[in-house]
Specification:
Distance between the termini of chain A: 49 Å
Largest interface: A-B, 39 and 48 residues
Radius of gyration of chain B: 20 Å
Strand content of chain A: 5-15%
Radius of gyration of chain A: 20 Å
Shape of chain A: flat
Order of helices and strands of chain B: HEHEHEHEHHEHEHHEHEEEHHHHHHEEH
Strand order of the largest sheet of chain B: 7-6-5-4-3-2-1-8-9-10
Order of helices and strands of chain A: EEHEEH
Number of helices of chain A: 2
Largest sheet of chain A: 2 strands, antiparallel
Number of strands of chain A: 4
Number of strands of chain B: 12
Distance between the termini of chain B: 42 Å
Structural class of chain A: mainly alpha
Structural class of chain B: alpha/beta
Helix content of chain A: 10-25%
Oligomer: heterodimer
Largest sheet of chain B: 10 strands, mixed
Chain lengths: 152, 410
């Protein structure tokens, strides 16, 4: 199983090159690492993990945006921020940035690694981790059954 | 929860099948008549095992290497040999545990359980007071359950709780956690109500598959909260599977990457019915009973009965419907067998799946369970449902609580 660095979801290694949950690109460990892991067993896997990180936990690519814009993950939570010209401060990039519509999967808080769309949102802690506008997962448009009558 | 118990499921995973974890229905006699009860408990089964016969079962389990036995019912404490059986399990080196509605847990019984060697007790609490009492069909049931938790803890027993989630009670989930935390539980098992037994008579009570889009992330968030509080939240075997929160749901420690590994019935789990019937999981339907302790030894039934072996050599080819084509098929094997069987009359295709609901939702669709045939009215029986695929935004009636627990047979 590969772990998505964007949403933390699992994807079977043979199923897809993108995350089955959020469609972020998945990066596989090099083939020789997989082969050595198979050969060496758990002890070898631990040794390799110490060198290369836990198998399956690789960062998503950082795609280049249109007109030389880039997307940066400032808080390191695996969710990319909006297109910026941070790495290409040219007039052409600034112009492209003005014209481009921002992608829909922008990290809702790129300064806090615990806040992003799809994050588990602890109800009652006063923090809107999943950026759905409320603390916790309750959908304000969905009525939840509340029992009011006494039991028979 | 101590560490060895918390890791129970993990440390048997590479061994040959043996009944490491046994759930034993000592009697179907019960002091509740819950609206969702899969075994339709209330009155004892015909031909329940005597105390002597039960003690022989303990000896056989010890020989098979059983590590833990959870005594259930009905209410296990209504069996005449209850305490003697707890003592015998402990003496045989098996950790005895109890799952109870708690109504009969007096201070004296709690103290007796400690002296008998009970390892821990789990009290079933299915919501806040009004919800729980409605679902358990008994006013005062919630208070007695909470009192039981307090008495068991005061006697020195580690306590747990468990909940059956459905449309009546899922709104109480977060508030109930707060109540249980205040009562010092060490672990909490969250499962969904499957259409078994009395729940099969009440289809409006059941979650619809798309409800998992809301429920699973909430349970995952509660798991984080519970972990911070030192409580182990364990998803039941029929809650999941393979949404983005899968590892969060299934892992004990934050750094673990555990996930659902298929139904363990007949691999490391075994169920015993009060009349000695042996099956791979306590909630499986009567068709999965592979023999009784009166007919032959448990070891013989375990090793030879095909009814117990159905998960041991299962392949993706045994799956059907959505599960057959799912990317997670070989890891998941169709989720919980008894839940799938209770919907379609056979395992291998389980609409109560988070990944499945999310996949359909991405296409603007959802699956609705529509009752097709009624359950006949026996313990662990089931009706059947048909699956209707409809738009995700299709209207859905919001029924008042009293309607949700009404009997509505197909």
């Amino acid at each position: 199983m590969l772990t998505c660095s964007s949403c933390d979801g699992l994807t079977p290694a043979t199923a897809s090159s993108t995350c089955l949950h959020c469609e972020a690109p998945l990066r596989r460990p090099p083939r020789w690492v997989l082969r050595m892991t198979k050969l060496l067993g758990p002890a070898g896997a631990i040794l390799l993990a110490a060198c290369y990180g836990a198998p399956g936990r690789y960062h998503a690519e950082r795609p280049m945006g249109p007109g030389g814009t880039t997307r940066v993950d400032h808080d390191g939570d695996g969710n990319l921020g909006p297109y910026t010209c941070e790495q290409n401060p040219s007039p052409q990039c600034a112009d492209a940035l003005q014209r481009e519509v921002q992608p829909p999967d922008v990290d809702c808080d790129d300064n806090d690694p615990k806040r992003y769309h799809g994050a588990a949102d602890l109800d009652g802690d006063g923090i809107d981790q999943n950026c759905d506008g409320v603390d916790g997962w309750r959908d304000p448009n969905k009525p939840t059954p509340v029992a009011t009558d006494p039991a028979p | 929860m101590n560490d060895s118990r918390a890791r129970r499921r993990l440390d048997v995973i590479t061994e040959q099948p043996f009944p490491a974890y046994v759930v034993w229905e000592l009697t179907l006699a019960c002091d509740h008549a819950c609206t969702h009860c899969g075994s339709r408990a209330g009155v004892a089964r015909e031909g329940e095992l005597s105390t002597d016969e039960a003690l022989e079962v303990v000896r056989q389990l010890a020989a098979l290497g059983t590590r833990e036995v959870v005594l259930i019912g009905g209410e296990a404490y209504l069996h005449a040999g209850f305490l003697e059986i707890v003592r015998a399990l402990r003496a045989a080196g098996i950790a005895p545990a109890l799952t109870t509605g708690g109504r009969g847990i007096t201070e004296e019984l709690a103290a007796q359980l400690v002296r008998a060697g009970l390892a821990y007790a789990s009290v079933s609490v299915d919501g806040l007071e009004v919800t729980h009492d409605r679902m358990r069909n008994l006013r005062g049931s919630w208070r007695s359950a909470m009192t039981a938790l307090e008495r068991l803890r005061a006697a020195g027993l580690p306590t747990s709780s468990n909940i059956n989630l459905n449309r009546l009670n899922h709104g109480d989930l977060e508030a109930l956690y707060t109540e249980l935390h205040a009562r010092g539980i060490g672990s909490w098992q969250v499962q969904i109500t499957a259409p078994l037994g009395r729940a099969a008579d009440r289809p409006d009570l059941l979650l619809q598959p798309w409800d998992l889009l809301d429920v699973v992330p909430r349970v995952a968030a509660l798991k984080l909260r519970a972990r911070a509080d030192g409580i182990v939240l364990t998803p039941g075997n029929n809650l999941g599977y393979f949404g983005p929160e899968e590892t969060q749901l299934r892992s004990i420690e934050a750094a673990d990457r555990d996930h659902w590994r298929g139904c363990q019935a007949g691999k490391f789990v075994m169920g015993i019915e009060a009349n000695g019937g042996i099956k791979g999981c306590p909630s499986l339907q009567p068709a999965y009973v592979g023999g009784t302790t009166r007919e032959r030894s448990i070891a013989e039934t375990w090793t030879t009965a095909p009814e117990l072996a159905f998960t041991r050599n299962r392949t993706v080819d045994d799956l059907w419907g959505f599960c057959r084509t799912c990317a997670f098929a070989e890891h998941c094997m169709g989720g919980c067998s008894f839940t799938a069987h209770s919907i379609f009359g056979r395992p291998g295709n389980n609409p109560y799946c988070h990944y499945r609901a999310r996949t359909l939702a991405k296409q603007g669709l959802r699956e609705r369970l529509v009752p097709a045939t009624a359950a006949p009215g026996e313990p662990f029986d089931h009706g059947t449902f048909t699956l209707v695929i409809e738009p995700l935004a299709a209207p859905d009636a919001v029924l008042p609580p009293e309607r949700l627990v009404q009997i509505r047979r197909a």
